[in-house]
Amino acid sequence: MTLPPLILTGGPAVGKSVTARALAEGRPRCAFIDVDDVRQLVVTGAAAPWKGREGRQQQRLGVTNACSLARNFLATGVEVVVADVLTPETCDLYRRELPGWLIVHMTVDLPEAMRRAASRKVWLTDDEFRLLHEADAANPPDADHRIQVDALDLQNQIELVAYLWEAPRRG
Fold first, then answer.
1. Rounded to the nearest 5 degrees, what angle is found at the Cα of 151, between the Cα atoms of 148 and 154?
2. What CA–CA distance (Å, rounded) separates 87 from 140?
3. Are the CB atoms for 141 and 90 separated by under 8 Å?
4. pLDDT tens digits for range 55-65
5. SS3 82
6. Are strands 30-34 and 79-83 parallel, antiparallel or unpaired?
7. Which InterPro entries does UniProt cross-reference here (predicted)?
8. Are 139 and 90 spatial neighbours (Cβ–Cβ below 8 Å)?
9. Domain 6-170, CATH homologous superfamily name and number
10. CA 106, CA 163: separation in Å to the nearest integer?
11. Phi, psi torsion values for 103, nearest 5 degrees
């Protein structure tokens, strides 16, 4: 029996992508979809989600494309883990496009996010980084689980999310 599709969300540098990839790598048949990569398929005229009407439209397109990919993988028995920064609007869109998602919202305080970001390439300006972090904290999506990951190392973070993901099967 396959697990339900999983979305990891949260502000920048919370560990969505690295945790999602590690979870996918630990499963027998699992795809990892980084929605930033899906959005970056728009090469000409690309707009960041916070860049007005066009950015929001491309953000929604990224969600519908990620759901299409997920549906195709799930139809062949491949489990799916998605990393994306959800807003309440995109959270609702994911749930409409592909019911059954398990959504885990990972949170980290801004100083810890900045510490984590210092160890990797960041594609955001400092202002964009803060804006996204503050927006995620002020207006979080309707997630199934919220976990504070400041004090967790990567292995503990992966184990906690795996436990939550497998909980519906245990329940």
1. 90
2. 6
3. yes
4. 899 999 999 99
5. strand
6. parallel
7. P-loop_NTPase
8. no
9. P-loop containing nucleotide triphosphate hydrolases (3.40.50.300)
10. 14
11. -110, 125
